[in-house]
Design brief:
Strand content: 15-25%
Strand order of the largest sheet: 1-8-7-6-3-2
Radius of gyration: 21 Å
Number of domains: 3
CATH superfamily of the largest domain: Extracellular Endonuclease, subunit A
CATH class of the largest domain: Alpha Beta
Bound molecules: zinc ion
Number of helices: 12
CATH topology of the largest domain: Extracellular Endonuclease, Chain A
Amino acid sequence: MKMKKLMMLLLGTVFTGALISACAEAEPVYPEAPETVIIEEAEETGETETAAEAGEETVGTEDQGETGETAEAAGTVTDPGSVNTGSYEQTSEEYAYFSLDQVPAYNGTQVIPVHEGMPFFTEEELDAARESYEYYEALDDLGRCVFAQASAGTDTLPTRERGDIHTVRPSGWQKNCKWERCHLIAHSITGEDANERNLITGTHAMNEAMQVYEVRITNYIKDNPDAHVLYRVTPYYYEDELVASGVLMEGMSVENEGEAIRFCVFLYNAQTGEDIDYALGYVDFTEDYIDPSSEEAERAKEEALENADYIANKNSMIFHDPDCSGIAKTRNSNRIPLNCSEEEAEQMGYRPHYSCIGA
Ligand SMILES: [Zn+2]
């Protein structure tokens, strides 16, 4: 009897070890990452030996030595400042779905759909999202944000005014480069302020593009107090660069299985007129740079609206034919010019206005 118990304990230890190594290597997938190995491992997590073997193949030997420590730091410690951190458990499976080599180079378009707009959430994650939680992954070895995930609901909304975030110096932050501290998950959704696991170095243009999704989620929860939105924001870096090349944003309204909100988009951490050194965060400004608070920026927005294929309302994320009376009275600041197909707009989480498009 005792012997059996001991065996179980030992097995348990081995198994836990395998799980921990899976956690430790779960870093953003870089273009050259051996994807097949990760997928294999993800499928066979139940089998201790296979997972361990796969782990050896995937990660360099250096990481293996400190697996235990890293895992403790990365997987189980939750931010003391956050509420309701839940029991979100991270596996490498969650990173295998996307890498930077899937997106074309930045050409001035800030947002593109990924995976036809379908988030990479698992069934288990969607089930678990019927209760609110927040999770902010620990910084990686380079001090970079890894990802943040929440099932946002009425009880994650902020209960106090937005606080100071200037105490946090995100990876790649350089002075006088017009960087903004971008929340992975916005204060308006989970009330996080100076949480270093939730703030990255980002351009104004990316920050602004993120807001569209943040506003939509916040409005939806306020209108539907019992509803949840599963939401994940993952920054992606090339190799050891300190500034993310962009973020993958995934969101889905849980109770109605994405009928109200569903998007999977990549946002470029870039901006016209900014020549960014992503390795260290230095920025050169070219003559194309436009100060976002200038009149020139307003004129550029007007021009973009005039040339847009569709125009969306920022508060509802409903998109219209540019001539539709339904968007005519909306202020320019709440109008989003879209230059894409109807299908792409929907994949980016916008919904068609039925009287002008959906008919
Ligand atoms: Zn319309």
